[in-house]
Design goal:
The structure holds 3 protein chains of 3 kinds. Chain A is built from 13 helices and no strands. By secondary structure, chain A is mainly alpha-helical. Chain A has 2 domains: about 1-70, no CATH class; about 80-280, MetI-like (MetI-like fold), CATH 1.10.3720. Chain A is globular. Chain B is α/β, with parallel strands linked by helices. Chain B has helices spanning about 5-25, 45-60, 75-85, 105-110, 125-130, 135, 170-180, 195-205, 220-235, 245-255, 265-270, 310-320, 325-335, 350, 355-360, 380-390, 395-415; strands at about 35-40, 70-75, 95-100, 140, 140-145, 145-150, 155-160, 190, 260-265, 280, 285, 290-295, 295-305, 365-370. The chains are: A mainly alpha, B alpha/beta, C alpha+beta. The interface between A and C is large, with 104 and 102 residues.
């Protein structure tokens, strides 16, 4: 793999570009963090004096609060049961992950390995199912999940809906990944007399670990971030999930930006942490000959 | 990861066996005690919520021996209307809920939502409430809610910056200009004049309005045009208005003592710095409107009973309790709300409060927000008309005519569909 | 005849097996079974509901007339002789008409004027709330109808109680013409005669199958499969037609009976009221009934049934071809052959069917109606308007209007919203892909230090929940306090009112969405780039190709297969990105910045026009579907070439 190294000057230039872009990218996150730690409720990090100078203006833009204060964080936990909401979110998202991964892996494996009529249209169907605007399905989903299945005020209902929402993307991606796994391993296992199920669980899944991880992450995120259905289905306050609770702070009239920021940080942390832990799988999971159709 | 598949599957099943029943069980309220539990929804936060919880707490204590209790559920405001619209027609909503009157007409027309409770109100009950409160919750002759509190816009001023109460809009403009002369760069009158909620106040003052009692749009009227012209005069000639009014900006300016006059409602005061010397007074009269006062829309929050409540009588009793003088005192002093019963305003703690008494006085010249379904067709064309007049400089007459046409069209469509 | 009868009568296992193995017979039988079960099923179901409808009309009509006449008499008696005379009037009326219960209620003074026993008037008690409410509702309905100038609300209430009785409430007007009271009766339901449906349907099915088997056995050399299929069509068509016409005749007879019994009920009720009023010394003027027999939705049932039944016959007969041409049999075989594959796919497909396609079908059905808040509980056929919603949406060409002060754009117009949505989607995807691919190229440079750190940080926007992102950027674009404006002022410029003009408002959404979507593109591109064989670059470099040429001819074609599906997904997600538009700019100014999905949401949930909103949703779906279809076609075409 010999290759001419690019010059140090070019490297420096690339680093410069990367640094600028990275700073621009993480600026909003830092801004929210600063707001959360500022102890205030206005969306302004510092007050501009009457006649601001250049340095005054610059100070306002730097994402550092005037004084550090944990008031917003304590307030957020005290005013609402944020802790139990977070736990609810974890439960719902965790279950969605399990159910979603199970459904997506089995389906993608079948699409990849078996030739059966309806294979092509099945894949297209998953793509098509993403096209109908989900936000407008609220009322029929309510009727189906709460009235017909009786799963309102019960996490199973939400878990089902979230899993089904996350499946299409996961199936597409997993199938593409499965397609790149050489069939010979499974073939020899079949000839040795192993059942399909054993092959699936003991051979294929471990090999496809990166893609499975990405599927799990995606399912988790879909469930973690969803607001409107959780708000409509749940019937008791203790059962709300975190996004629903966060909306208490940004209400119709004066928005409490400080509480919102503190809550936003807390709600974003688990997903960000997961991303960091699993980031090495991200690239390999979404690749390998690609998310081919 | 999945080395021994059988053991793994077994473990997964065991986990599921533990978790799934918990899930199915959790969230559903198993009421072990006999008697009736009524579920009540609201969208209150902060002080209002604390007040409500205290009142319901005493209700539950007093009614424990009868086996009737109320369970509260707070819903985020953004999702509140959607949640009600989704749940009520399917028979799955609350037994009681607190809401303003603006959607009442729509709910009654769609059926299977709110229960009329006029039967339980006798003449003495009607007398308890301030005039106009029960009417606001009446649709086509039937009363649907027990009025709990009312809100409207009023004139909020910083008494340190503006010691005298302006009686007319000319005085208000003069005082605002005086302030701006003393403090150049600031603005004398701050309110969200681009918000259609605020526009109604001026329309009503000039004798115009949005919809008639019979549900016809009446936007395209001379009176409404004059209302717009007054607003434009304040902005362009007197120059006392903010160029970009937003709620957050108004709040900040007021709290920083950079503006003396604000037009807003009780919700505003929840965010105001208590150290300021704030006084609320009725909105002034408009000489151009033949001396009529500015008439803001009156919003009455009522306790509604849903059609699926197990006992409408018990639910009504809860509503009655919430409007008793003791409960009203808590709502007024702790929740900083304006109760609807007359008796509370004899209490010196309430009457001497400069904020509560100010809003109470404003009541005399406010007009109830129409609760008919046709009203819902105003907001989009109304906002468009306002934006056109204020930003694009379109003549008010044209903007109003177009908004009127739009409203007529969508109302006709709505009525046609009902056949 | 004899041999066939004998073989059928035996039904021994060997005969059945030989029948089963004969593919032609199996196909033919399947054809007949499909046609007959579908046809008979639908016909019988429709007949049952038509019959029930006639029963309901008979019962409801009877109750309505009795209530109406009670109200007529009660009003006359009260106005002439006072409240005390109403009780005796009601008692006599009740006896004569045989109703189960009768109440006359006055609302303003809350008095029960009559309960059918002749007792004196008494005040309403707590348990009488429903009576009071119904009087108020009658008054409300009359007022609504008068205001709107149409008979939208029923002027006589009819409902069925839990015990199956029919309860009708008719208004009584005071001297001023206001509705202040009502007369209410309860009657037992009327059954106007049953239909022998089960007999007909089972007979038809047996006869059909037997007939076909018989025909196949008798004429084994019956030519081609097409001829056999034709025979099946003829046989099942004939059978279904006979049955449909027979049932239709029964329904017609029932309808006649119901209509005449209703006319009779009307006369009898009036006679009873006349007599009871006369006993109190009041004469009733013979007014024609306000409610016509025609309006009770009985007339026309039989014709409607017959027309739809014939339609069903045609359809079901055609469906027989699916069986008789072998389709059904082959489907079954396929299913069995691939059952393990289907088992694997089942959970996901079932979930998608239930939770995605059912709501989709619900939405499509809703889009053909004019459902609003007013009529959400009425039966769906009454709300049917066909394609009028689509016509209204697609036919609105008034995008730009000429006014006194020049041209103005109507921001509520559908085509403007389509334009904005397309602009939104294209600009977002183009920017997202460019930035993502660009960053991936940079990060892919061999020997670059700190790759992991950069990658972690650059992926962050994807991790943050998107409604938090939307609200955060809204805060950053705040005209007064937002950092963006402060940055502009820092650079010496003027603050911009971001949400006051379409262009700037659009930019806010664009910035937000690009921020959130480029990480996905970046990661996908990175993956694709890493799978490219480096030797190709080596070879190209040796041949003297510039960086740009290498990019165009090696990099791009190699990443394309990976990027295209992601781009399709990204287009679909961006097209329907609700949160960013709704939360960041909220469509300011005045709806100019809305995209199709936010507009549909507002129409549905803020204006309560559910049907119209559903049509919008279906249009969104169709646009994306067409795009996806052509995109996939184009991609496979280039893949085949390249």
């Amino acid at each position: 793999m010999s290759e001419e190294r690019l010059s140090a000057g070019t490297h420096a230039g690339l680093h410069l570009i990367l640094i600028i872009v990275t700073l621009l990218t993480i600026y909003p996150v830092l801004w929210v963090a600063a707001l959360g730690f500022s102890g205030r409720q206005t969306p302004s990090l510092a007050d501009l004096p009457e006649d601001p100078t250049f340095w005054d203006r610059l100070r306002v833009m730097i994402p550092m609060p005037e004084q550090f204060s944990l008031a917003n964080f304590t307030g957020v936990f005290a005013e609402q049961p944020l802790a139990s909401w977070l736990i609810n979110s974890i439960i719902v998202s965790g279950l969605t992950t399990i159910v979603g991964v199970f459904m997506a892996c089995t389906a993608a494996y079948a699409f990849s390995r078996f030739k059966f009529p309806g294979r092509r249209s099945g894949m297209m169907m998953f793509l098509v199912s993403q096209m109908y605007p989900a936000h407008l399905m609220m009322i029929p989903l309510y009727i189906i999940v709460v009235k017909w299945l009786g799963l309102g005020d019960n996490y199973l209902g939400l878990v089902l809906v979230y899993s089904v929402t996350a499946i299409p993307f996961c199936v597409w991606m997993l199938k593409g990944y499965f397609d790149t796994l050489p069939y010979e391993i499974e073939e020899s296992a079949i000839m040795d007399g192993a059942s399909r199920t054993r092959i699936f669980y003991e051979i294929v899944l471990p090999l496809a670990r990166p893609a499975v991880v990405v599927t799990a992450l995606f399912s988790f995120m879909t469930a973690w971030n969803e607001f409107i259905l959780a708000a409509i289905f749940m019937e008791s306050e203790g059962a709300y999930t975190a996004p629903v609770g966060l909306r208490f702070f940004v209400s119709d009239y004066a928005a409490k930006w400080g509480y919102f920021a503190a809550g936003a940080i807390i709600v974003s942390l688990p997903v960000c942490a997961l991303f960091f832990l699993l980031q090495k799988y991200l690239v390999s999971g979404l690749t390998a000959g690609g998310v081919k159709g | 990861m999945f080395r021994t598949s059988n053991k793994f599957i077994l473990r997964l099943l065991a986990l599921a066996a533990l978790v799934v029943p918990t899930l199915i069980g959790c969230g559903t309220q198993e009421s072990e005690q006999e008697g009736m539990e009524l579920v009540m929804w609201h969208a209150y936060r902060g002080g209002e919520r604390a007040a409500l919880e205290e009142v319901i707490g005493s209700f539950n204590a007093e009614n424990a021996d009868r086996g009737v209790r109320v369970r509260l559920l707070a819903v985020p405001f953004d999702a509140y209307a959607d949640k009600l619209s989704a749940a009520l027609p399917q028979g799955k909503g609350p037994d009681l809920f607190i809401f303003a009157q603006d959607r009442l007409g729509g709910w009654v027309e769609s059926g299977k939502t709110v229960e009329p409770i006029g039967f339980y109100l006798n003449p003495t009950d009607h007398q308890r409430f301030l005039p106009g409160m029960v009417d606001a919750l009446t649709y086509r002759g039937a009363v649907y809610g027990v009025p709990l509190n009312f809100k409207s816009l009023a004139l909020i001023r910083n008494a340190d910056l503006a010691p005298t109460e302006p009686q007319t809009t000319d005085e208000l403009a003069a005082a605002a200009r005086a302030f701006m002369v003393a403090r150049p760069g600031e603005f004398g009158l701050s309110f969200e004049y681009a918000n259609p909620d605020f526009q109604g106040a001026l329309f009503n003052a000039f004798g115009g309005g949005v919809v008639s009692d019979r549900g016809e749009a009446i936007l395209d009227r001379e009176q409404n045009r004059k209302a717009f012209e007054l607003l434009l005069k304040w902005r362009d000639e007197d120059k006392i208005l903010l160029p970009e009014p937003t709620g957050a900006l108004v709040l900040t300016l007021y709290n920083e003592e950079r503006t003396p006059f604000v037009i807003s409602g009780p919700w505003f005061l929840g965010e105001v710095d208590p150290a300021l010397n704030t006084i609320v007074s009725p909105l002034p009269i408009i000489p151009e409107a033949d001396g009529a006062p500015i008439r803001p829309w009156l919003l009455v929050e009522g306790v509604f009973v849903s059609e699926t409540a197990p006992s409408s009588l018990e639910a009504f009793r809860v509503a009655q309790y919430l409007t008793s003088p003791e409960a009203a005192t808590i709502f007024a002093l702790k929740g900083r709300q304006l109760p609807t019963i007359k008796a509370i305003y004899d209490d010196p703690r309430v009457m001497n409060d400069p904020i509560l008494s100010g809003f109470r006085q404003q009541l005399e010249s406010s007009a109830p927000l129409p609760n008919i379904p046709e009203m819902a067709h105003y907001w989009t064309p109304g906002t468009t008309a306002m934006t056109q007049v204020l930003r694009s400089g379109r003549p008010p007459a044209d903007a109003l005519a177009e908004a009127q046409a739009e409203m007529d069209r969508s109302i006709a469509e709505m009525r046609r569909s009902g056949q | 005849m004899t041999t066939a009868d004998a073989s059928l009568g035996q039904s021994s296992s060997s005969v059945m097996r030989s029948l089963w193995r004969d593919r032609r017979i199996v196909d033919a039988v399947l054809g007949v079974v499909i046609a007959l079960s579908v046809g008979l099923g639908v016909i019988m179901w429709t007949a049952r509901s038509a019959s029930d409808g006639l029963d309901t009309a008979a019962s409801a009509g009877s109750a309505i007339f009795k209530a109406e006449m009670a109200a007529l008499g009660g009003e006359a008696v009260q106005n002439a002789k006072g409240a005390d005379a109403v009780g005796p009037f009601a008692a006599q009326y009740k006896n004569q008409t045989g109703v189960e219960a009768l109440s006359i209620v006055s609302a303003p003074d809350r008095i029960l004027l009559a309960d059918g026993t002749g007792a004196a008037p008494r005040p309403l008690g707590v348990g009488d709330k429903d009576l009071y409410d119904r009087v108020v509702r009658l008054a409300a309905h009359a007022e609504t109808n008068e205001i709107e100038g149409q008979k939208r609300k029923p002027e006589i209430l009819i409902a069925q109680s839990d015990q199956g009785r029919y309860r009708a409430s008719a208004p009584i007007r005071s001297a001023d013409g206001d509705i202040v009271a009502m007369a209410e009766v309860e009657t037992a339901p009327v059954v106007a005669g049953g239909l022998r449906l089960l007999l007909w349907s089972s007979g038809g099915l047996v006869f059909g199958i037997a007939g076909i088997v018989f025909a196949m056995r008798q004429f084994p050399g019956l030519g081609t499969q097409k001829a056999r299929a034709g025979l099946v069509v003829v046989v099942s068509g004939l059978i279904l037609m006979v049955i449909a016409l027979g049932v239709s005749a029964q329904i017609a007879a029932k309808e006649e009976g119901v209509l005449s019994s209703l006319a009779l009920a009307q006369e009898n009720a009036f006679a009873a009221a006349e007599a009871a009023a006369a006993a109190q010394g009041v004469t009733l003027s013979k007014e024609p009934s306000a409610t016509s027999v025609r309006s009770l939705q009985a007339r026309g049932t039989a014709t409607l049934f017959r027309d739809s039944a014939l339609f069903v016959v045609a359809g079901a007969t055609l469906m027989s071809l699916f069986g008789s041409l072998g389709g059904a049999r082959r489907l079954g075989q396929t299913f069995v052959a691939h059952r393990s594959a289907y088992a694997y796919v089942a959970p996901a497909v079932l979930g998608a069917l239930l939770l995605v396609f059912f709501p989709l079908i619900y939405g499509v059905l809703m889009s053909f109606t004019d459902t609003t808040l007013f009529n959400v509980n009425t039966p769906i056929m009454e709300r049917w308007t066909g394609l009028s919603n689509y016509g209204a949406i697609l036919g609105d060409f008034d995008i730009v209007q000429r006014t006194a002060d020049g041209l103005r754009v109507d921001y509520q117009n559908f085509y403007w919203t389509v334009f904005v949505t397309l602009l939104w989607t294209v600009s977002n995807v183009v920017l997202g892909v460019t930035i993502g691919l660009g960053l991936a190229l940079v990060l892919n440079t061999p020997g670059l230090k700190g790759k992991t750190v950069y990658r972690i940080l650059l992926v962050l926007p994807w991790a943050v929940p998107n409604y938090i992102t939307a609200l955060t950027w809204r805060g950053m674009f705040h005209p007064q306090f937002g950092v963006i404006n402060q940055g502009i002022e820092l650079a010496g410029g003027e603050r911009i009112s971001w949400f006051d003009h379409f262009g700037t408002s659009f930019l806010t959404g664009l910035a937000t969405n690009v921020w959130l979507s480029f990480p996905f593109m970046m990661v996908v591109s990175l993956g694709a780039l890493q799978s490219i064989n480096r030797d190709m670059y080596e070879a190209a470099r040796l041949e003297g190709a510039s960086w740009w040429q290498q990019f165009r001819h090696i990099t791009l074609p190699s990443v394309q297969p990976a990027l295209i599906p992601s781009i399709i997904l990204s287009v679909v997600w961006t097209f329907n990105m609700f949160n960013v538009i709704y939360l960041t700019s909220a469509g300011e100014p005045a709806g100019a910045n809305e995209i199709l999905i936010t507009k549909a949401y507002k129409i549905g949930f803020e204006q309560y026009r559910y049907g119209y909103s559903a049509a919008y949703a279906v249009i969104i779906f169709m646009i994306l579907f067409v795009y996806g279809y052509f995109q996939v076609k184009a991609t496979s075409a280039t893949e085949a070439k390249g």
